[in-house]
Every structure is written in C-alpha cells, then in structure tokens.
C-alpha cells in the first residue's frame, strides 16, 4: 500500500462506503466527541485564536526557511553520531531503509505509527525483502492483522471498525479466545507486542516534529509504543516528511500543545519522546545506530506555490473531525491514506489530478475545516484553488459544464440577457410545475429534483414588484 | 438611511417574498430603499466551481452597479461574503481591486445591518410558534455574523426558539456541490432535516436562500410539515 489505497472510482467508492451504517455511526460519534473535547481543551488554554496565530507564524517561518533548518537539523544530528539521508522520492527512501535492513540482516522490524511510511509504502517493500514488519500502534496493529486494511483517519486509523470486528480479527489471526471487551482486547495485543519488542532487530518511527537546534526527533504517543520501538532495537530509523520540523524546543512546545489539543483534546499526550541520535558511552539504553530519512516525495514541488500553506499541516485531523462530508463518506472513500479536507488538498498535490481530481469537489466549501485548523491553513480556499486549476489551467472540466459557465458569464454580465432570461424562467418551467413546485426537472435541474423539490420561478420577479412598489409610494 | 438593496438572484427569481419582506422591514425601520436594476448574480455558482474568469464578468458588473451606493444590504450571508471576497479575487488587478475594496467596506448582511448599524434588536415582529434556526456556513464562519440573527429572533413576540442539534454542520447545499455530488448532498441534507424534525419546531428559519431552498426542498419531498422561513419574513411578521 502506498498513498493510493484502491483503484475504484471516487463515485463508486462513496456509494459503497455510504452503505456501511456502522462506519457512519462510528464516524459521527467520534466527530462529536473529538470536536467537543477539542473545543473544551482550547477554552481551557484560553486565547485560542492567539495560539493559532502563533502556530501559523511558526509554521510559515519554518517553511520559508526550510533549507536552513533542514541543514541545521542534519548537522546537529550528525554531530551526535546519527546518519541523515535526504530522499527525493518514495523509492529513494525505501531503498535506503532496505539497504540498512540488508546490512543488518534484520528479520524483525517494529514500527510506531507513521503516515509518511504509509505514503511511501515502506511496509510492502520490507515485507518483499522477507522481513516481518509489525505495527505497534494499537489501531495500526489491528489494521495490519486484518490483511492490511487501510487507515481511514490519520490519528485514529481504525475508526471504521467496532470491537466485535476487532475481536473477529484477533480470533482469526491471534488465536484470541476472550470477549470483545476493549480492555481484554488491548491487554491481549499488549502481551503479543511485548514479545515482539524484545525480539526486534530494527525500530522504525515517524516524526511529529524534528527539532533543528538539537538534531532531535520529537514523537507524541498515548500508548508509549514509540518509546519501546526506539529504545529496544539496536538500530533505529526515523522517517520524516521534510516539512515536519521546528527551529527550537520553544516552538516544539507550542506546536505539541496545539497538536494534542486539536487531535484528541488532551493538554499533552501520555508520552512525548525526543530522540537525539544513538546512545552515547554514558547511556545504558537506546540504539547503537540512528538513521534519519528526510522524505521529499513531491513536497518541495509545493513550496513556493499557491498551495504552500498545506505544508503547515501538523497532522492533527481537526479538519477531518469537523468535516460534514467525511462524516457521511468516511475515510476510505478518498482512496488515499490522507482523507478529509486536508487529504482532498494534499493528495492531488502529491499524487496528481489523474487519480484524484474529484477530491477537491468533495466539499461544500463550508469552511468548517479552516475554522478548526490550529495552524490556520485556509483549507476551503485551497480546495477552491484546486478547482480553479483543474478548470482553468488543466482544462479538465466536462464540456457541458464549461459551456454552461461560459453562458453564465455572458448572461450575468449583460442586463438585457439577464432580464430576459429571468423573466422567461417562469413560463419556460411551467410544463414542469405543479402547485408552485418542480419535482421532476429537466436538464441541469434533474440532479437536484432527484433528491429535493425545486421551487417554481416567481410569476412576478422581485424586481417587477419593486418597480410597482416604487410607483405606489410615489417615488418613481 | 438610504439603503441600496442587493436582492440576490435567488430572491429575484424564486423568493420574491423574501425580497418584499426585506424592503418592508427596512422601510419600517426608517430606511429608504434603492434597487439598482443593473444587478445580476454575485458570481458564486461559477466562482465556487472554479470558473473564476467567467465569474469575474458578473463580479465586474456588480461592482459597477453598486459603486455609488452609500450602504449595500443583502438578505444572504453567502452573497454578502462573495461581495466581500471580490477584493481577493481582483487582488492582482490595479483597476478593479480598489473598487472591490470599497464595495466590501459598505456591504452588510441584513441582520448584521439591523443590529450593528441601525442598533435595533427588537423590530416589533410577532409570530406564534416554535422555531429553530439553521446558521449558514458562509454567514457564520466567513462573514462572522453569528449573534445578530439570534438577537433579533429573541425579540420576536410569541416565538419560542429551540436549538438545532449539530447546527454547525453544513446542510449539503454548497452550490453546484448539491448536484455534482448529489448522493453525498442527500445524506447531508437528510441529517439536517432529521435534526430539524427532532426539535419539533413548526418553523425552520435561516438567513440564506440557497440553504433554505435545499433543506426546504428536501423536507417537502419527505413530506415534513415544517414551514421554511427566511429571517426577513419572520421579522416582517406582525
């Protein structure tokens, strides 16, 4: 699996997903819980709008000086004995990790949750090398056991599964014999994973934010699995998207606070880990070898464009948790590991319009996403910008729509045309009208009236009434 | 005060009652209403679908038509937002940008105008019954008008307001989204209709013609007996 998770058409995907009533109930419930928690956490912190502006400023500053901070990060990590590899493509990143695996003759690889490794399809590559790759985030672990079911959310990847379904997966794959109680399921996973941790040759983590001033990789988890993945195996690899970096620990603190509050409504997560190179002579734990893989994979192509602000994203999923479209279609409909509003902006940029040109239209531009974003990415504006690029720069819109919009431009800018058109509307629509309602409309109205009634055009337009009104009040 | 009315194309063609109510309410509050007949559509259908160049033709026409107005008032949060956005659309155009900025500065959504400019919260309206209010997305999030409608409604004699569950969620209109992604739109509007039904309100009130056409059209199709009213009509009830 890489960023694209299937080959179905967007429409077919959506229709299939919308039939999944469990998923829809789970998503709606989670949205309501997470939204309330986020709002409570923001209120508790106070001055939320100022914190957002501060977060935005930090992200913009870092992106504007990304080359500088990446170099600082890289130099500082190397000083601490770490290895740094800049990967231009997914393939480069995977090849580098593969080369370490070969060199170490590694068999068992443990992973903490990482969206960028999903994006580059690292697990598949390592499995083809004959490695046993084990996800240790509970959600990811469940999905991996379930024949690599793709994540449907970037923070809670198994959101679409209920405890009964999880129990079935455990029963089939882990010889589980207990009930569907979440505590029993979690305990079982924990026991299994503990054995794996002790046998792992290599640990792979993602990176929430790298810290340039010290050459550290910062990780945020509630399960403590990232700590285990990075402490126990002798070789450690961190994979990060090239934009996931802050200048100093001061900015790290601000962004972690925004991330945990926005993602799950927590002041802090249970574990916040900063990894800084391999263990030193005085240290008793940690890996003896440390690699940082910095992945571009299309990101530098977004820098400096009208879409640059999407790189401000800190992967909190607040936009997903408020999106009324995601609410009904779920994560898998987007056909990308990045779903929801952020996915609808980012996926076409990383994966191209050929496969993902419908995504920017999967929004009412209601701006709930923009409102929720803790680093103020203008998501609804970026979705709109995609539409403009698709229509005007790429010329990918259907001919009929182009003609209609052309006619709109001409009609709406000419008084006689608009006046005549609006005056005629009532009589043109008469054959379709019954009791002032159109319930089966022609042409472009067909799609509307398949779902809802449409009002018949006024027999007397407002402007006609107003003219009369002016006359009566003696003004005209 | 001399108020130049931007009626919106939906009101002009489909909801003239809303336009009439707007005029009557404002006149009662002492305003003199002007309606420039050169007004067309604000350009949203084309703009939101990505046809910015086609939309600009309508936008220029609107700027030229409303340029001389003292204040512009419109009974639609979404169309007011579009007017205010013209300055961003024309940000690289030295001729049209300043004209668009001036337009933005004097544009008000109806309830915002009554509460913030006229400083009136009680317009003397009367309407018996239970109602719920759908806050439209563009009006609340982009225009930032959240409290004005609630203040006005709280003073309507005889009207009991019930809060709408998940009011913040979009109704699924989204302009061309409603037909382009009709299957998703249907699920969204159905949830909205269910929320309205849950309040047991007899009136659904809103401040945007598009949203009301969507929710109202679906309620009518599903045989729900709830009456859909634009806030201008409520404020004009006596």
Describe this structure in words.
- Chain A contains 22 helices and 13 strands.
- With 476 residues, chain A is an alpha/beta fold.
- Among the domains of chain A are: 229 residues, NagB/RpiA/CoA transferase-like (Rossmann fold, 3-Layer(aba) Sandwich); 74 residues, no CATH class.
- In chain A, helix 3 crosses helix 12.
- The two termini of chain B are 23 Å apart.
- With 238 residues, chain B is an alpha/beta fold.
- Chain B has 13 helices and 8 strands.
- In chain B, helix 12 links the parallel strand 7 and strand 8.
- In chain B, the strands form 2 sheets. A 4-stranded parallel β-sheet of chain B has the order 2-1-3-4, with helices on both faces.
- The radius of gyration of chain B is 17 Å and the shape is globular.
- Chain B has 2 domains: 115 residues, no CATH class; 115 residues, Rossmann fold (3-Layer(aba) Sandwich), CATH 3.40.50.
- Helices cover 51% and strands 15% of the residues of chain B.
- At the A-B interface, helix 1, helix 14, helix 17, helix 18 and helix 19 of A face helix 1, helix 2, helix 3, helix 4 and helix 8 of B.
Topology:
The complex is a heterodimer of chains A (476) and B (238).
Chain A: H1 10-18, H2 21-45, H3 48-64, H4 66-79, E1 83-87, H5 90-104, E2 108-111, H6 115-120, H7 122-128, E3 132-135, H8 138-145, H9 163-174, H10 182-199, E4 202-205, E5 209-211, E6 216-221, H11 225-231, E7 235-241, E8 245-246, H12 249-264, E9 271-275, E10 289-295, H13 318-322, H14 324-329, H15 340-351, H16 353-356, H17 368-372, H18 379-393, H19 399-413, H20 415-428, E11 433-434, E12 437-438, H21 445-449, E13 454-455, H22 462-472
Parallel strand pairs in A: 1-10, 2-3, 2-4, 4-7, 5-8, 7-10
Antiparallel strand pairs in A: 5-6, 6-9, 11-12, 12-13
Helix pairs in contact in A: 2-12, 3-12, 15-18, 19-20
Chain B: E1 2-5, H1 9-13, H2 16-28, E2 32-34, H3 44-48, H4 52-66, E3 71-74, H5 77-89, H6 96-105, E4 107-109, H7 110-117, E5 126-133, H8 137-142, H9 147-154, E6 157-162, H10 177-180, H11 182-198, E7 203-206, H12 209-221, E8 227-230, H13 231-235
Parallel strand pairs in B: 1-2, 1-3, 3-4, 5-6, 5-7, 7-8
């Amino acid at each position: 699996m890489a960023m694209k998770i299937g080959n179905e058409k967007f429409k077919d995907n959506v229709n299939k997903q919308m039939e999944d009533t469990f998923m829809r109930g789970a998503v709606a419930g989670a949205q309501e819980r997470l939204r309330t928690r986020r709002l409570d956490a923001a209120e508790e912190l106070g001055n939320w709008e100022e914190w957002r502006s501060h977060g935005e400023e930090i992200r913009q500053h870092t992106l504007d000086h990304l080359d500088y901070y990446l170099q600082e990060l890289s130099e500082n990590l190397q000083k601490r004995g770490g290895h740094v590899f800049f990967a231009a493509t997914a393939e480069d990143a995977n090849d580098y990790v593969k080369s370490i695996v070969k060199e170490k003759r590694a068999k068992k690889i443990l992973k903490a949750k990482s969206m960028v490794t999903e994006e580059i399809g690292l697990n598949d590559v390592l499995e083809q090398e004959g490695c046993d790759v084990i996800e240790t985030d509970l959600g990811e672990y469940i999905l991996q056991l379930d024949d690599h079911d793709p994540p449907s959310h970037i923070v809670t990847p198994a959101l679409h599964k209920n405890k009964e379904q999880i129990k079935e997966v455990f029963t089939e794959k882990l010889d589980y014999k207990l009930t569907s109680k979440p505590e029993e399921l979690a305990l079982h996973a924990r026991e299994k994973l503990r054995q794996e941790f002790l046998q792992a040759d290599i640990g792979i983590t993602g990176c929430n934010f790298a810290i340039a001033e010290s050459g550290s990789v910062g990780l945020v988890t509630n399960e403590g699995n990232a700590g285990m993945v990075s402490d126990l195996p002798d070789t450690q690899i961190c994979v990060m998207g090239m934009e996931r970096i802050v200048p100093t620990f001061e900015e790290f603190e601000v962004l972690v606070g925004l991330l945990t509050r926005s993602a799950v409504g927590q002041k802090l997560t249970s574990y916040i880990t900063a990894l800084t190179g391999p263990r030193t002579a005085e240290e008793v734990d940690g890996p003896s070898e440390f690699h940082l893989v910095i992945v571009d994979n299309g990101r530098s192509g977004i820098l400096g464009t009208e879409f640059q602000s999407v790189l401000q994203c800190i992967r909190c999923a607040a936009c997903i948790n408020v999106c009324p479209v995601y609410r009904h279609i779920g994560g898998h409909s987007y056909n990308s590991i990045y779903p929801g509003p952020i996915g609808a902006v980012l996926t076409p940029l990383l994966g191209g319009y050929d496969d993902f040109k419908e995504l920017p239209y999967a929004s009412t531009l209601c701006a709930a996403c923009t409102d929720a974003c803790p680093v103020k990415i203008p998501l609804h504006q970026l979705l709109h910008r995609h539409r403009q690029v698709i229509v005007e720069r790429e010329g990918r819109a259907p001919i009929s729509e182009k003609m209609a919009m052309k006619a709109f431009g001409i009609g709406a800018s000419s008084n006689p045309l608009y006046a005549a058109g609006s005056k005629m509307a009532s009589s043109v629509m008469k054959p379709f009208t019954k009791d002032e309602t159109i319930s089966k409309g022609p042409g472009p109205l067909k799609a509307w009236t398949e779902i809802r009634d449409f009002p018949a055009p006024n027999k007397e337009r407002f402007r006609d009434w107003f003219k009369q009104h002016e006359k009566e009040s003696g003004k005209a | 005060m001399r108020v130049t009315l931007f009626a919106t194309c939906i009101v002009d063609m489909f909801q003239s009652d809303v336009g009439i109510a707007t005029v009557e309410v404002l006149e009662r509050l002492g305003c003199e209403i002007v309606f420039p007949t050169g007004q067309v559509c604000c350009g949203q259908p084309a703009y939101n679908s990505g046809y910015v160049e086609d939309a600009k033709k309508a936008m220029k026409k609107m700027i030229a038509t409303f340029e001389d107005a003292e204040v512009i008032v419109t009974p639609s949060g979404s169309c007011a937002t579009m007017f205010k956005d013209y300055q961003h659309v024309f940000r690289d155009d030295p001729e049209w940008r300043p004209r668009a900025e001036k337009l933005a500065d004097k544009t008000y959504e109806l309830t915002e105008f009554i509460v913030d400019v006229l400083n009136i919260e009680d317009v003397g309206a009367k309407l018996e019954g239970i109602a719920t209010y759908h806050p439209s997305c563009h009006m609340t999030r982009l225009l930032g008008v959240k409290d004005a409608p609630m203040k006005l409604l709280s003073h309507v004699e005889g009207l009991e307001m019930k809060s709408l569950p998940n009011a913040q969620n979009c109704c699924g209109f989204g302009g061309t989204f409603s037909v382009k992604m009709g299957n998703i739109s249907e699920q969204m509007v159905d949830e909205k209709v269910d929320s309205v039904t849950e309040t047991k309100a007899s009136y659904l009130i809103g401040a945007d013609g598009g949203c009301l056409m969507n929710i109202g059209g679906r309620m009518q199709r599903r045989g729900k007996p709830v009456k859909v009213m634009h806030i201008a009509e409520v404020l004009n009830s006596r």
